[in-house]
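Subject: Prohibitin

B.,
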Amino acid sequence: VKIGLRVLTRPIADELPKIYRTLGENYNERVLPSIIHETLKAVVAQYNASQLITQRETVSREIRNLLTERAANFNIALDDVSITGLTFGKEFTAAIEAKQIAAQEAERAKFVVEKAEQDKKGAVIRAQVHRISILDYLHKQLPCLTTACS
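Prediction pasted inline below.
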């Protein structure tokens, strides 16, 4: 799984001297990549691929919360964290497509079975109507069988 993440940060203004002393001018380059990577691994590991898609907002919120906490340890504030993209490997994409095709085929099979059942019910009804008409005909002919009918 490849995840695109947008992170907007700023140093906590009151802590600028401390940030400069401990991390230097390039604090963003020294701290953020590692805590972002660690946070992503920690959060994403809790979800399977389909959950990452269906629960994207929850995943994003968890990443934001954990990353905010981690960045605060370095006196860095996070203004925004959002998932910009989720990309899955070819195998996963193929599996999803196969699952969708299987679901469509199952729906089609269900429809065919339901249609066959309806056709069967129709045939039974037609047979019953035919039987009734034959019985009605025979009932009308019954007096002719006991007497001479012209």
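The CA atoms of residues 6 and 17 lie 26 Å apart.

T.
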